[in-house]
Amino acid sequence: MSQALLEASVGELVVQRPSRARVFEKLGIDYCCGGKKPLAQAVQEQGLNLNEVAEALEQEKQRPAADGERDWGTASMTDLCNHIESTHHAYLKQELPRLEFLTTKVADRHGSRRAELIEIRDVLLGLKAELESHMAKEERILFPMCRTLDTAEKAPSFHCGSVNNPIEAMVAEHEDAGGALSRLRRLSDDYTPPADACNTYRAMFDSLHQLERDMHQHVHKENNILFRKAVKAERILNH
């Protein structure tokens, strides 16, 4: 593996080639909230073999790009905001109420024998409340600022001062959400249902796993692409 690859941040590697996200998902490497870490550090922290990671990335490189896979690193901020709202926010608005129903039903039915199901429900309900507030702030405050910066010819005047201020708040909330997702993975034993699990139990674990995958993509597009574009655009307009 080249030194340049080892020193590159995990998030930037996914920006350069979005399909690398599949490799990092499989290896348990955080490319969204932990996207600023160099690959070498991320590999070491996960206790992975560097040669095996290099081989996995090389194998991925040989695969053809998936049909319809867009390079969001080259998209405008307006297109990114529209995409995030219509894809990831829309998914969460539909899926979070469904997961509230599933986690509550499974906890009520099986929580007396498996206490972790009670905690899964409680973590999910907390995450749901946080994400609903988070999406509202992005759609009402931060995304309109990003769209303004996309077309501005001079530095705009924002009520909150700099676009950095809401971005810092959103990044902190992403960290909190990432912590909740990590707890859900641990509590569910990596989304592995017990042998005697009913269909609702299995559906809950499958849906929680899908939530994690979508959130990783969602946060990656914001932290590692959209927010960086916004900060850079504001800096250029101010000079």
Share of residues in strands: under 5%
Secondary structure: number of strands:
0
| Largest sheet features | none
Q: What is the CA-CA span between the terminal residues? A: 39 Å
The percent range for helix content is over 70%
Q: Quick one: overall form?
A: globular
Radius of gyration: 19 Å
Low-pLDDT sequence parts: none
Report mean pLDDT, rounded to a whole number. Answer: 92
Give a summary of the structure in a few sentences.
The chain is mainly alpha-helical.
How would you sum up this structure, described in words?
The chain has 239 residues and is mainly α. 72% of the residues lie in helices and 0% in strands. The protein has nine helices and no strands. It starts with a helix and ends with a helix. The relative contact order is 0.14.
